[in-house]
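Service request form, structural biology core

Requester: graduate student, group of Dr. S.
Request type: structure prediction, single chain
Budget code: on file
Notes: please return the result as structure tokens.

Sequence provided:
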Amino acid sequence: MTHRAFVSKKEKSRAEKIIRFLGLSLFAILLVAGGSVACKKKVAEEAAAGQKPAGIKEGINDFEGTVKVALGKYLYIPAVQGFDIIVQGKIESGDASTLVDKEIKGKGFFSADKPSILVAESIEVKEAERGWRPVFTRTEEVVLDDYLDLKAREEFQALKDISYDKPEGWEGKGRAKVFGRLEKETTSEGGQQKEIYWIAILNEKNEQVGKVIVDSFTDFAQYYLKKLRLFENLWFYLTIKETVVWKTRRVTDDLFHADILYCGLF
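Core staff response, request fulfilled:
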């Protein structure tokens, strides 16, 4: 055997080993990535199905993290995934918005019949000088007058085949949901600035097929708008009100008035 032939076989063997190593490495990476995706999908499916996240028990639970969204009685803490934290009553510092970007810890009550809610029993705020300072203790009964859980949202029918000349598509529906984008315009009225909101309804091709004039938002809806601020297009859950008159509707594409009760990704 010549030296050239020996080198060729040696190089071929080394190349085969490198290919096998790369192949195994790629397989390991894909396996880990696949497991991560599957895990995230499982968590999302459990949340959608109303199942409690791991580690949460019936009754009192501890929670801790930095508040990122607060509006009305609702708090969102990314570290407490899958939950909206309800703060029923007065907070020492004012209202819930004073807790945004602050690190807090507390105790919350979990009940299986409200699987996406933690009712705050007590809250403490972390302060550099004094450590943890109590700012809230619940003394009131919880009132969930504008909260829509998953079961309630399932009753909202999606409006389809919407057009300015087809009022039967929304009239008489009562409550329904539309997919689209929230828009805002600032106008002057009586020397005062006024913000006008509407929803641009989008079809499957992302084309605008009509507009909903927004008369009001619940606190719960505004809270979720802040929580989902990185998403441009959402599902809007509405109470449908009066239809815009024909001569206006055919020119402006304004279809009807509505109150927004909730917005989400599905």
